[in-house]
């Protein structure tokens, strides 16, 4: 499954800061959005509502989301160090959205070039200035 990601950014001094963001999954028809003075919300065919991360005090196994195709030995070791966990594999920015809406606790992000856990490589383009 793929997503369409849109961010509204403002330049403040020498830094760009996010003001508003939207992630849309066309296949499922679900949209996640939020920003400055705009509460985070999930909208989909089954309804809309606010989002909140899951409390860490839950006795359930940790809910871990990870890429279905980019996992290495370091990822497996890290997951095992968590103790009991449930793993759901999914792609794209859906992993972050599932954590934000409270349906997972942690995202395992891998760099396929190094087969270890590291910051996710993100494609970015220069911002457009009006």
- Determine the N-to-C terminus distance: 33 Å
List the uncertain runs: 114-130
Order of helices and strands: EEEEEEHEHEEE
Strand count: 10
The largest sheet is:
5 strands, antiparallel
Mean pLDDT over the full residue set? 81
Could you name the CATH topology of the largest domain? Answer: D-Maltodextrin-Binding Protein, domain 2
CATH class of the largest domain: Alpha Beta
**Share in β-strands:** 35-45%
Number of alpha- plus pi-helical segments: 2
Q: What is the total domain count?
A: 2
Structural class: mainly beta
* Second rung of CATH, namely the architecture of the largest domain: 3-Layer(aba) Sandwich
Helix content: 10-25%
Q: Numbering strands along the chain, what is their spatial order in the largest sheet?
A: 1-2-3-4-5
Global outline = globular
User: Cα-atom Rg, whole angstroms?
Assistant: 16 Å
């Amino acid at each position: 499954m793929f997503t369409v990601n849109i961010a509204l950014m403002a330049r403040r001094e020498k830094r760009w800061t996010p003001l508003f963001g939207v992630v849309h999954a066309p296949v499922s028809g679900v949209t996640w959005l939020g920003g400055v003075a705009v509460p985070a919300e999930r909208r989909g065919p089954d309804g809309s509502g606010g989002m909140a991360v899951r409390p860490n005090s839950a006795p359930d196994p940790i809910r871990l989301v990870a890429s279905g195709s980019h996992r290495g030995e370091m990822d497996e070791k890290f997951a095992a160090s968590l103790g009991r966990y449930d793993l759901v594999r999914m792609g794209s920015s859906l992993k972050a959205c599932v954590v934000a809406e409270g349906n997972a606790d942690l995202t395992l992000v891998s760099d396929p070039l190094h087969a270890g856990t590291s910051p996710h490589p993100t494609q970015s383009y220069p911002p457009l200035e009006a």
